Each structure stands twice: as structure tokens, then as C-alpha cells.
Prior knowledge:
Blueprint: H1 10-38, H2 60-74
Amino acid sequence: xxxxxxxxxxxxxxxxxxxxxxxxxxxxxxxxxxxxxxxxxxxxxxxxxxxxxxxxxxxxxxxxxxxxxxxxxxx
Length: 75
């Protein structure tokens, strides 16, 4: 979804965040619970977009969602 931030609706932002960030957050949380329950270490691989670090014009919502994924990995 490429559009200026001032034309991005709340619903569009929520959808972009759900698809591009929240889905990965929930997967990581579930996997972490499984690792803890089994008392086994594990690795989780997340795939995201370079726009999370280096945005482009009219990608505020998408880039923000992927920036959140970058920070999820760091945390």
C-alpha cells in the first residue's frame, strides 16, 4: 500500500500492521512458548523488508510495520 501518510486511513494502517507485523509477533510468541515448554533452545527466522530500515516516499504504514519486525527481532 503506497500512499501519503495523510491519506492512510486508520483501517488501512490496522490492516497493514496486522498482516506485516502482528502475524509475525504472534508466531514468535507461540514458538517461544513451545521452546520453553519443551525446555529446548530454538531459532526463529523472520523475513521482512528493507523498507523497515530505509523507507521510501509514500510507504509510512508499510515501512512502520516492517520497522516493528526489525525491533521484534532485536528484542
